[in-house]
Amino acid sequence: MAKYIFITGGVISSLGKGIASASIGKILESRGLKVTLMKLDPYINVDPGTMNPYQHGEVYVTDDGAETDLDLGHYERFTRAKMTKFNNATTGQVYNAVISRERRGDYLGKTIQVIPHITGEIKERIKKVAQVSNADIVLIEIGGTVGDIESLPFLEAARQFKVDAGEKNVLYIHLTLVPYIKVADEIKTKPTQHSVQTLREIGIQPDILLCRTEKPLADEVKEKISLFCNVRKQAVIESRDVESIYQVPMVFKAQILDEIILSHFNLISRPSDLKDWEKNVVERQLSPKGVVRVAVVGKYIGLQDAYKSIYEAITHAGISNQLKIEVRKIDSEDIEKLGPEELLGCVDGILVPGGFGNRGIEGKIKAIEFARKKKIPFLGLCLGMQCAVIEFGRHLCGLKDANSTEFKSKTKYPVISLLAEQTNVKDMGGTMRLGAYPCKIKKNTLAAKVYRKNIILERHRHRYEFNNKFRKLFEKKGMVFSGIYQKKDLVEIVELKNHPYFIAVQFHPEFKSKPDAAHPLFREFIKAAATK
Ligand code: GLN
Description:
- The chain has 2 domains: 3-280, 3-Layer(aba) Sandwich (Rossmann fold); 288-531, Class I glutamine amidotransferase (GATase) domain (Rossmann fold, 3-Layer(aba) Sandwich).
- The protein is 38% helix and 22% strand.
- It is built from 19 helices and 23 strands.
- Helix 12 links the parallel strand 12 (291-298) and strand 13 (324-331).
- It starts with a strand and ends with a helix.
- Glutamine binds at residues 354-356, 382-383, 406, 461-464.
């Protein structure tokens, strides 16, 4: 039978609950236990797929085509757990399921209520994850901050879970903030006391506290937290700011967090071993042998979370090449105003990420033209590939004003057009071409050199695609179509010859990059940038 760990957050958001959960998963996994992780999101959207990245950050896509919370990206980067549509549940999904059942008549004669119907559905979803993953330990991260109205049903389900599954099979971890007040030169425990109090009012007594802090937690501070929060002192864990998120598993291990968890569950396993992680990830990351400057030219530049997996994949490529990467986040609209030379004149590589809608497109196209002409290594992702195709069409194929029908429906040269399967799609939620599809790599191309494989499997999230009517012309003018989804003859990878590294892909390789296994497209991009 699986053991369940619920992770809640208090005081403020953005304390790194996702990274803390993933890090705990990592240490437990290094002890030979099979873990999986799940995120419960209190918002009413069915999934984050219809939200603006500024609202919610990146939408993380799983192999099975679910559009999910970006924390699932942390789970896959830190652990071997495979994320699926079951690993993320939202209030929207939960109510959707219950209301559909009610309409079908499954509850005839009954009143449908938050308790037990909504909480019951939440618990079923948690058990489902345990069942399909066959994990020894299921970590369930509850989104939001304790005290939010929205997350109450999830917390109530977490409380009930202990009654259902048994005291020894359920553990509660609460992540909280212990702020340092500069003028008083003191760290304060009151916010933590209050947030644990709120949790206890709901009926949850945390077993372990993870205290985010910028200063070390003195013994007497731990004692005070322990006393007021009713948590053993040993289980008051200091989670001080670190240079790299990949150090967090070691920080927890040093305070025997894994031992505390296993002894609660009465589980015995081999000791944890993070040596490879420490050596191949953290040590390499913190001892770079050089610096490379990479521009990310996008439109959601103001929010770090909007391109989370891309920034992580760049970091992984830095780790693998043992280089420090300075990321220049450039708003593509600024390129429209100031021109590419001004903003991209001194970078070693240019990356254009995915996106939707017209805003900033012309700036991205200018950036790509600059990369092509100045022979600056270039990696285009999804919309980045589509922009590379538009640029090539306009400037090398003589197709003046070539465009994507997403931006100009009546364009004379629709070099990017709607996928055939999308023409009758009316609903916007969950209807893109989503998830993993195989792609055949053409021999003797840059893609073949990068992947060293014939068939690759990458994740997608798009509605538009290269328009095959233009394929012959583009080929004649020098564009190489090096990756094809054979079943529907869709272009997945384009590249240019006579350039140190110019490659763009219709899919999202960033979702499959790991700190100890950088994605080859990113790894070689950074290598090329360093050579430049
Ligand atoms: N908007 C483009 C499409 O739907 C690109 C999507 C993306 O970059 N994820 O095809």
